[in-house]
Amino acid sequence: MHARYLRFLLLFCALTWLPAIVLNFVLVKNEGNIEEISFAASAWQEKTKGITFSPTFGNNSLFKTLRLNDRLAETDTIVFSSSTSMPIDSTMLPSHWHLYNFSQSGSPLSSSIRQAEYLAAKAPHIKHYIIALDWAIGSPYQAVAAGPIDLTRPTKNTANQQKNCPSLLADINDALSFPRMTKLWQVLTNIAKARQPTRSFREHFLQISSDEYLCPDGKTPGMDFGVHNRGTCNGFRYDGSATYSDYKLASNEKTLINVALSASSKYVEALKTTQGAVHPQVLERLSALNTAIGKNGGTLILIMPPLSPGLEKGFLQHPQYSTYLQRTKQDFEAWNKTNRAVILDFGQSEKYGCAVNEFLDQHHAIPSCYQKTFDIFWKSAEGSAIIARTRER
């Protein structure tokens, strides 16, 4: 009796879980080939000038490098940053500038400098270099590796792709994981709610991307690689900027500030560890980069990205952290007395009219906040002078 019950229970579990495991395995295989997805997404965007989302959103170096090479000949303005500056788009800059936003998830200042060094040497027609100085994520305090980063156009490497392909056992383990099961439930829910469930099932399980669709503006095409954010036009635009159109926005200003000021926060850790001293290699390499850009007739623009309202003010009023943060700002101010680059400090976003619901977290502003900061800057005497000077080129 007990043996029969046990067999029945095992059979029931197998019949219940096997379809889920198989479907998850299919999703894992569809999303696991970063190279294939990156090349496909890049080729589609170059052809359509549309918006694309990729499951490599947190590992988008290959995609961004492919896009940079496709756009390089017609571009004179590049943004180098982590995801904090991804919202910067063409509408925020002078109309005669031609932008590609090369920001990449998790890319620190040290990488931005090395990427810019490569382009200053190889692409003298690039005139405007916009580089983020993210003190909030600790970038100014990190050493810079020797030499530029090679940004030549990547080629498909089938042998290397096969070598790095996860084993069957690894894929099965991934398919059995709780995050994957949660994602599968979300996917199946979305399919059930879709206007055309059969089509939605095909898009999710039988191909690596969605079908092409129209974004809410009624004219921009969209295509999503992976299973998240389907049909929302949440991804990268043709100019490299990110739409940030389908993320949960912050709502409690004080909570963001209190968390950031807590002794264990990542914001505090970076300041306390370095006492706010900018790494000498950062300043040295920026000086050399500024000189190289100047020889090409270009301009180096360094921006301190917007932080959630009141956050930077909270640090500047703190008895200990204020000294460290002021040290960071003073280091860059002293550096600029001899280098004369353009430094834009957008850190206290409330001064530009940004609200807490224009942030995803303490250091990720959405496009509307960036638009406000740049609008005010371009109307200033310094901003107007830059517009006039660059228009004469």
3D structure, described in words:
With 393 residues, this protein is α/β, with parallel strands linked by helices. It has a single domain (33-141, 154-165, 208-391), classed as Rossmann fold (3-Layer(aba) Sandwich), CATH 3.40.50. Helices cover 49% and strands 8% of the residues. It contains 15 helices and 8 strands. The strands form 2 sheets. A 5-stranded parallel sheet has the order 3-2-4-7-8. Strands 1-6-5 form a 3-stranded mixed sheet, covered by helices on one side. A hairpin with a 6-residue loop joins strand 5 (213-214) and strand 6. Helix 2 runs parallel beside helix 3 (61-71). The longest helix is centred in the N-terminal third of the chain and has 31 residues, at 2-32. The chain is globular. The relative contact order is 0.14. The model has no long low-confidence stretch (mean pLDDT 86).
Main CATH class: Alpha Beta
How many domain units?
1
Radius of gyration: 24 Å
Overall mean pLDDT stands at 86
CA-based shape: globular
Give the amount of beta strand, in percent: 5-15%
The helix-and-strand class reads alpha/beta
The CATH topology is given as: Rossmann fold
Poorly predicted regions: none
Tally of individual helices: 15
The neighbouring-strand order within the major sheet is 3-2-4-7-8
What helical percentage do the residues reach?
40-55%
The largest β sheet comes out as:
5 strands, parallel
Oligomer: single chain
CATH homologous superfamily (4th level) name: SGNH hydrolase
Task: Identify the CATH architecture.
Answer: 3-Layer(aba) Sandwich
Number of strands: 8
**Cα-to-Cα separation, first versus last residue:** 89 Å
Summarize the helix and strand pattern as letters.
HHEHEEHEHHHHEEHHHEHHEHH
